[in-house]
Design goal:
Radius of gyration: 41 Å
Largest sheet: 5 strands, mixed
Number of helices: 46
CATH architecture of one domain: Up-down Bundle
Family: Belongs to the GlnE family.
Enzyme class: transferase
Distance between the termini: 114 Å
Cofactor: Mg(2+)
CATH superfamily of one domain: Nucleotidyltransferases  domain 2
GO biological process, one term: regulation of glutamine family amino acid metabolic process
Strand content: 5-15%
Keywords: ATP-binding, Ligase, Magnesium, Multifunctional enzyme, Nucleotide-binding, Nucleotidyltransferase, Transferase
Amino acid sequence: MAVNRTQGRVAWLAKAGFADTAAAERELDGSALAELADRSDLVAALGAVSDPDLGLRELVRLLDAMGPGADRDELLDQLAIDTSCRRRLLAVLGFSSAFADHLVQHPDQWRELGVADAAARPTAGELRVRLLDAVGGDTGADDPVAQGDRTTLLDALRVAYRRHVLELAALDLADGLEVADVAAELAELADATLEAALAVARSQLPAEAVPCRFAVIGMGKCGGRELNYVSDVDVIFVAEPADGDDRSGWLATATTLATELMRACSEHTAQGTIWPVDAALRPEGKAGPLVRTVASHVAYYRDWAKTWEFQALLKARPVAGDRALGELYVDAVLPMVWDAAGREGFVGEVQAMRRRVEDHIRPAEVDRQLKLGPGGLRDVEFAVQLLQLVHGRADESLRASSTLDALGALTGGGYVGRNDGAVLDHAYRFLRMLEHRIQLRRLRRTHVVPDADEQLRVIARSLGMRHPGELVEQWRQQAQEVRRLHEKIFYRPLLSAVARLPGDEVTLSPDAALARLKALGYVDPAGALRHIEALTVGVSRRASIQRTLLPVLLGWFADAPQPDVGLAGFRKVSDALGTTPWYLRLLRDDNAAAERMSRVLASGRYTTELLLRAPGAVAMLGDDAELRPREREPLEREVLAGVQRHDDPEDAIGVVRAMRRRELLRVSVSDLVGISTVDEVGAGLTAVAEATLAGALSAAIRAVEAGRGGPLPTRIAVVAMGRLGGREMGYASDADVLYVHSPVPEADEPEAAAAALAVANEMTRLLALPSPEPSLTVDAALRPEGKQGPLVRTLPSYAAYYERWSEVWERQALLRAAPCCGDPELLRRFEALIDPLRWPAGGLGDTQVREVRRIKARVESERLPRGADPSTHLKLGPGGLADVEWCAQLLQLRHASTVPALRTTSTPGALNAAAGAGLLDRVDEEALLTAWRRASAIRNATVLVTGRPSDMIPKDPATLSAVSQVLGYAVGETTTFVDDQHRVARQARAVVERVFYEDPH
């Protein structure tokens, strides 16, 4: 379509994308393009390139360099009719001034762009032929030799190399090649160039040179087939004497070949340079010999190599020279690469090396460093390589040299989550493409994102983005994702655990697994092996992840009290959750969660059975905050809301039980992993019990009201007693309670009493329904007249009884009475009723004190099981729970009227208040509290291990060992554990003898 210049040609150029429209008009009018200038398709084609102004200037410069004649006319014709050629030529000219310089110097090469095929790129063999042809080498010879003058050969090699890079860049910029394919082709081009440079080096050898076998090993991005447009090419040289030639001097020949090859690539000639060949990755670096034999390399890596050198060898690949020798080298050194992860401190060294790389970035560039900075290419590469080195010992599928291929294998094998792997893959490709564009702009080796808007605008347009802000935003977003996943994967603690395993224990072959199980102390190795086989059989992603986890988990199970129980439990949990996406991901990525689950499962039956009934709770294991016992209020709100949603009382109590099951698991895990103290465990268990009773009471009230057809004629409340009232419950504690009710005005009292009793009975029934989780027994035996008395009383009934009939022990029991659930006002009035009884004015008289002491002695003699050893009884034995609690309660009964701080239901709180008031020495307080807390912890640990309550120190050696380990003792320290308990109990008993029986207060 012709353009009317009088109708705004400048506006037309601006709309086409030109920034300097006046300059563009001058270029169009004053050049060989004048005839084409009015054709909108050419201008539109220029407007589509990354930098239209640059594209037009360089096109004019190219035409001027060609001068009048058939060649220029041919190009003009192609610009007019061949859209494919025009698009590729303008894409290059409109992005890279360096390629424009090359085309101006070699104008005939524009024709290559018209015939280039993005779908059928040359093979590595074809590239080798092209580059050897350029230097006159015999492409069929084993050791081709270049023919011609050295200077001419080097120029020809550079022209041939740059010609192919030009063709590739044109396709990349115009057609959008896959970045991995571009990097692989550049690496194969580097292979061919090194082969041609070696041919040039051979041509420079003197006639008397002793022959040798010589191979070039590609390293770094060249070895990994992921080379940049502009990059050093890292290599290692290896040589051997020629077959059958025993003359000396072959090593000098090899060194000359290496030196000449490096010069052939890096020297500046009239045609510029190709790239530096860097051999600094060789043994001993730049201080070491340039060329070594295979045996010399092996000896160095075996005895002297550092961790980073094995990491570098991940990408070793024969690229030029004697291929058989190159393969021999790789076969000799790679086994050492896959053993490197077993070196002491290996993972930490790799992590430290990554930090050192970041520390050496120039401060002015750190936020723009695409390669080395946080969230850059190195973050992906280091994470991938570390995972490869750690897990590649056992899994050969991970032994890929390309970062993207290795990442794909790691993701496919379950070592990296699918989502994480996809994010890293996408980010790495984007960052590599951005790196390529930055380098192509001026064909310079740089990894720094420019900060000038004009440069960013050109790069953004080359990537299909509209403006610089879009490019920067996407780059920052990708870098942020890379950094997040790098920190998650690269610093994954499981890596260190896997790396520490001996080489023969990384895999789970039957023989290796059985030997390890025996060595770790599994009681039934054959049974454990069956669990392992069930977990790891097959080629599924799940089995693959289990094969990675289990070698470490087996050791963690063995560090816990009951490894066989732990492994069996792990299998059951995995069967329940194995297809849940987050489960294995959590264990793989979260070391704390995996180690904690191992400890929990191998510590005993109580928590394991809870976990098996609520396997989804595994998700809380990795978060300390999630494991801390919850307060009562949110739990109560949860259960009351749930109860209200169900009309059937048994459905309603199911909601309550689900909460209790989950919260018992939370408390027991926090106990086992050391997050909660014994006091916090007691408070947590009490909060769970209180919320459970509140939910049961609500469900019972609704059930009775539904049966009556109307609201209750009375208000009802539950008073906590005993350990529930003291907020000191253990895993096996009953819920000691009192029921109190108050008829509403004008209600019939017998009817109100019957309704209250029905609620109490229904509450007991609901809590007693068969259920797999530990039961909560409601015990109202502390009520007036004990089990013979009414289950529910009114306030006046309680008042009358306590005034006329209460004994000292009942006052003592009321020391732990606390509001539990139900009508708040009724609970407040009940507390007001009992406070004068439990905090009696003037304390206790001597007769009452003697009565307390007499009752305690009677309890010790009558309740201690027949034949039981008192020294092993945690509750009634000397220095046991009863000793400490009765001691604290006597102090409260005697002095709470004058020491308000003693008015507490807590045993530790009472002892602390007594010491604060001078009624108890601080040393004595510490002795009593230590004994009380230790006995409580042993009782709790026994339940956790066996799933059953016991007040005795375990007699069974296996149980005793497990309990001691749960409490922090090492294997084999059961005697120390028992001795410590006896010592602590004796010290507490000595205090009780003085304070409870003899104290002058």
